[in-house]
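Colleagues,

For the teaching module next term, I've prepared a clean inverse folding example: a structure given as tokens, and then the sequence designed for it. I'd like students to try predicting residues themselves before seeing the answer, so please don't circulate the second half yet.
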């Protein structure tokens, strides 16, 4: 099994800030970008996409997870989420759950201090292992 790639947090933050400019946020005005590092060493990206039906809004992390699957990646190692001005944001509750599925408890998240594991943000999470074997394909 190959070793996990080293995380270049500066590169992830720059990529997240760049993609945040593509965020579609006419209602909140908050442009959000997310950049992640895959197990294979690739960068995956997402930006938020709002909707006139507010509840339909897609967070930046949704786009990132879609990009992950588009690439056929085996999983996420690290994620950085920022606003359009580069300010660091913590993923919302729903997105913590999405990221848990994609990266598991050891997924690293960028913060203004030192990076933290996802299980610090989402302790004792419900996940794939809580489902009966026949439920997972
Ligand atoms: N947003 C994200 O993209 N990710 C989060 O984790 C938190 C919130 C977006 C959704 C909405 O477009 C805007 O931020 C304000 O809530």
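(Answer key — instructors only)
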């Amino acid at each position: 099994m190959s070793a996990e790639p080293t995380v270049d947090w500066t590169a992830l933050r720059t990529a997240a800030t760049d993609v945040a400019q593509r965020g579609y946020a006419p209602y909140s005005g908050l442009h959000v970008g997310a950049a992640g590092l895959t197990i294979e060493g690739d960068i995956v990206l997402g930006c938020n996409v709002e909707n006139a039906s507010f509840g339909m809004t897609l967070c930046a992390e949704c786009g990132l997870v879609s990009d992950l699957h588009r690439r056929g990646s085996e999983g996420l190692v690290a994620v950085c989420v920022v606003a359009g001005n580069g300010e660091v944001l913590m993923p919302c509750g729903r997105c913590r759950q999405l990221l848990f599925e994609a990266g598991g408890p050891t997924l690293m998240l960028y913060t203004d201090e030192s990076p933290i594991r996802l299980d610090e943000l989402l302790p004792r999470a419900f996940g794939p292992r809580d489902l009966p074997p026949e439920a997972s394909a």
